[in-house]
Every structure is written in structure tokens, then in C-alpha cells.
Amino acid sequence: MTHSKPPAKQSNSGDIDRFLADVKQTPSLYRTGRGRLLFAMDATASRQPTWDRACQLQGDMFSQTRGLGGLDVQLCFYRGYDEFRISPWHDNADRLLKAMLTVSCLGGHTQIRRVLNHAIAEHQRQAIHALVLVGDCIEEPIDDLCQLAGELGLLGVPVFLFQEGNDINALRGFKQIARLSHGAHCHFDINSPHQLGELLNAVAVYASGGSPALEKMASQSEAVKRLSHQLGKSSL
User: Fold this and answer.
1) The pLDDT of residue 124
2) Which residue of 80, 91, 153, 232 pairs with 26 in a disulfide if CB–CB is 3.0 to 4.6 A?
């Protein structure tokens, strides 16, 4: 069944200010060595333009973290009827891009619960330092997602939620997930690719080098400065 969606909300400086402020305050010790980032995307039918844009941007996440010890990224996505896929861990942009280019978006309902459950299980095998989720809606019980977000918060795995569009249910749910996991939430405009790119790069830097590396990066970008300022208010 096809559902109509409200028009996409244009990101404003206040949205990004609040997101970047949360990023700065997310609890994080200084780290050395490779960062591990779980990169989750909604691949239901409406998401193809965002998926294509993310394919173009993902390489910068690796280049931004080279001086910090590098980055490993695992891709996971949901689409179609009960389909949830997880890639191997990738340590360079070419391998991740190859994995992403094989995916086409299919209609279906969200499966954010499976993303959060997978993040918990993966962290218990080997620590991950951040979870990014890119999506535009929630079609699951919010209470169930909040329970899992709280578990991730206790484990020290912040969730960074990038929301396209203006779905009010998603807005409320994403904000709660961010707060409970000590992460952050932000709207983005797919028509401004540099905006999504800067936010993805900021979380990659955070995953690899922690808050000190993010604060250093913030001096070079106004968007990242606002992200850095927001992170961690959710822990108050």
C-alpha cells in the first residue's frame, strides 16, 4: 500500500544547532585505534534518492578518519517484506560502495527494532562507537524502540538519527531514541548534499577519535560546530 507523506521539511540552522550541540556532549573518552561505525539506512521504496546520495558521500567518512587510526563501517538496511540485511565490516570506501551499489530500494515497513537489536548484539561481540540511522518514518511501537535505545545508552553506543522529511511520528520517536542513547537527531535536506556529508563525516570522526577529534573538526565547519555543541545534552 502506498502512503502519502508530508512535504520534506527544509533544515534550518536551529535544527542543526540542536543536533550539533547534542553531539558535543555525548559521553566519550579519547580513543586511539580504529573506530567502528554501524551505518543503517531505510531502503524502503521512497528512499532511493537518499540511498544514491549516500553512495556518493560515503567515501569521505574514511578519508576524514585516516589521521585518527582509521574507520571500519558495517552497512545494514531494511526493505521490502521483512528483509533485513547486514554487510561484513568494511575498512575502505571502495568495498562499502560496492556493497551499496548492489542495493535497490523496495516498498515495505520500517524495521528499526531490528537495527537497534543488531547494534546491541554487535557491540557485545566487539565494541562499536556509534550508530547512524538515516530514515524518514517510524512504523513500529515507539516504546519498544525506546527500550532498546536505553540499552544502547547504557552500553555507551550513541545513536545519530538523520531524518529526511517532516513525519511527526518519526520526529518524536527519533528524538526519544537520541535522548535515551545519548546520541543526537537532526533533519537534513537531500537537496543540500554537503549538509548530509558534513554530518556523516562528523559522526565518523567521533567514532574514530571521540569528542576531542570532533571538537577539532568543528573549528573547520560551521555545521560540525553546531553538531559538536548539541551532542550529549540528551544525557542530562
Assistant:
1) 95
2) 232
